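User: Predict the complex with fructose -6-phosphate.
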Amino acid sequence: MCGIVGYIGKQDSKEILLRGLEKLEYRGYDSAGIAVVNENGVQVFKEKGRIATLREAVDEAVIAPVGIGHTRWATHGVPSKVNAHPHQSSSERFTLVHNGVIENYNHLKRDYLDGVSFKSDTDTEIVVQLIEKFVNDGHQIEDAFKETLKLLKGSYAIALLDNQDQNTIYVAKNKSPLLVGLGDDFNVVASDAMAMLQVTNQYVELMDKEIVIVTRESVTIKTLEGRVVERAPYTAELDASDIEKGTYPHYMLKEIDEQPAVLRKIIGNYRNDNGELTVDEEIRQAMVDTDRVYIIAAGTSYHAGLLGKQYIEKIAQIPVEVHISSEFSYNMPLLSGKPLFIFISQSGETADSRAVLVQVKEMGYKALTITNVQGSTLSREADFTLLLHAGPEIAVASTKAYTAQVAVLSILARDAARAKGIEISFDLSKELGIVASAMETLCDDKEEMEKIAREYLSTTRNCFFIGRGIDYYVGMEGALKLKEISYIQAEGFAGGELKHGTIALIEEGTPIIALATQEIVNLGIRGNVKEVVARGANPCIISMKGLNEEDDRYVISADVHELFTPLLSVIPVQLISYYAALHRECDVDKPRNLAKSVTVE
Ligand code: F6R
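Assistant: Here is the predicted structure with fructose -6-phosphate placed in the model:
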């Protein structure tokens, strides 16, 4: 979702800001802008659409060593130049960028800004006008900023410029992520360390309800009450090459191909000296102590959670419920006596999940976050964290983070089983090793996946994925992947459920992608395929060797325990979705309307 950058130093800020915004493009946006300050005051450039359009609009002749920038993913007001950030106060003295949602903006407008005329439909403009109002009332700018923040309800990350001061960027956050980066003779602001990796890898984390005064030479963090807070910087363990596409045409394809390496990295990171895959003692103990695990997640991470339930129940014999985070808060189930909450989130910033985390922490329960981003909000605010070690995932459609989530959940389940003295018939490390090698073979079969995509999906308006048992969950993930990047209407269905209504949608030629990787349901799913074929569907069966039949379209060959076939069957599904999107000339890495890091509820 929206992204923020800022620079204050000796160089011209424009290029640094634009390059920073380009690094945030992956989060999803529909307009972008920058504001820079020099001795002539502030200059704002903003455009609807891509950063490339903004680049063309920026006046090269303006040289300014201070600036802020923003990518906007519309919430209040349509995507447009007027609604794009930065926004300015009426006198144009103050210029501001904001991520998040100000929930009480209408009340604030009514109570404090009567008579002020607004240019945009955004909630953000209220913030900059409030700051100007408090300055006009006699406050110093820092106090005016604080007074404004105290009134805001909702989420925000803010960077603010005063056109009368070329040596300060004012920064604050609540619930939305924001970092300050440190350099020699300069400092930067960024929603994500990736944005400013071009100039620094030293970052300071900001906490909610702090304000930060960033100058060329210093970074001063204060609470809203005015107490100065000392906080040591950390080194962002990111390699610049991790965030480049290299020779790949798209990040998504690169990330699909990275999955075997990610799996091996996970094995390496979680293996103890005895060669066992284990988690930290305190996490193990939390698993042993709980009487029920509640998995909370959204989208693809929710689908990984459904597989996590299978692992934790079947391997560790602990009951599990899986919940969509946006539903949980107001639809909370009756909780068990000793619940353990597991939050699964690639970004670690998903606002829906964070809202649940805040709620369950207030209720006094323990929480574990499984995330790809160390230091992310969900990681910081939970009691424990398990990292995915997947490296930055840039494509909006999650691929390697999903398989990493599934693998880490299997390790958590295996370790809990060991702690509970439950005998397991397989060696997890060996199984995951087999999976990694088999993934490589699948990734090498791109030509075949491309053919399947062309054959089944180049012109269709819809598509169904069906499966039974754990294949059903992979089908749900397949449908999400396909629809989000190719815009084909796709649904993942339990094979047996189709005939209870949805079969009415099957027409001559409707593609049905059926997954058959589990012996126990093999006959069942094949029966379901026959039912839809009898009604004209065009079936594409993806099966495991040993369960395959003559007309299966793709057969996965790997001698792996049945619990881990989802880590394999998802690869053809990801690749088929990728090629379907390519055939339809869609923007694979940046699908319309979507954001990578969903930081609003
Ligand atoms: C789909 C996708 C999304 C995310 C969801 C949760 O490809 O990426 O469905 O899985 O928005 O995001 P995280 O995992 O960051 O909490």
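The first strand starts at residue 3 and ends at 8.
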